[in-house]
Every structure is written in C-alpha cells, then in structure tokens.
Design a protein that fits this description.
Length: 123
C-alpha cells in the first residue's frame, strides 16, 4: 500500500520555523515528484513545493519562495519542508503528495495524497 506519512506540524508564532517530514512507501521514490500542497480554511488547495525523486530538482511556489526549502533523503524515501519566517497566512493543513510528472503542479495531477498535518501560525 502507498503511504505518505507526514509529520512536524504544530503551533508557532509569527517569524518562527517548522520542519515538515514526509516518509514515502509503497512506490518507487525515484519515479515520482514528492511535495506539499496546503489548504487554508475557506480556500482551495494550493501547491507549495515539489522535488524530483530522481534528480533532486525543486520547485517552490511564489508565496513561500525564499522562506521555504524542500529537500529529500532518498536513502530513507523521505522529503522535508523547512519553513522559516512563518506568518499567519501560512496557516493551513499541509498535505504530502506524489505525482509522476513535475511539468504541472495541480491538485488534479496528484496521484497520491497523504494525510494532512496542521500548521498554525499565531500573530
């Protein structure tokens, strides 16, 4: 069975940092792009960041660029999202995802969704 086990969410003050982890299993890590979507209350899901399991190339969405960094440990099939300078607009449920192609980063292209982890940033 495919599993994307996310962890690391929590409550943090504005300006603080959190590190999310996603442990993947049940599929060939190198054949996929692994990353994160988030969904804030009353808003649609939006892509946050993506990393290629094969060559490590990354994409970071504009709203978080310069503050969030994605990385991976292929030996452990794990992806990390380091989130710095958090602000209340980053409050959302963060979902670990996997998709085949990194050409489009849309919810409809996601093949696997993990359970969400709540990130709450207080002002």
């Amino acid at each position: 069975d495919v599993q994307l086990q996310a962890s690391g969410g929590g409550l943090v003050q504005a300006g603080g940092s959190l590190r999310l982890s996603c442990a993947a299993s049940g599929f060939t890590f190198e054949d996929y792009h692994i990353g994160w979507f988030r969904q804030a209350p009353g808003k649609e899901r939006e892509g946050v960041s993506l990393i290629s399991g094969s060559d490590g190339s990354t994409y970071v969405a504009n709203p978080v660029r310069g503050r969030f960094t994605i990385s991976s440990d292929n030996a452990r099939n794990t992806v990390f999202l380091q989130m710095n300078s958090l602000n209340p607009d980053d409050t959302a449920v963060y979902y670990c995802i996997a998709l085949r192609s990194g050409r489009y980063f849309r919810a409809e292209d996601v093949e696997y969704w993990g359970q969400g982890t709540q990130v709450t940033v207080s002002s």
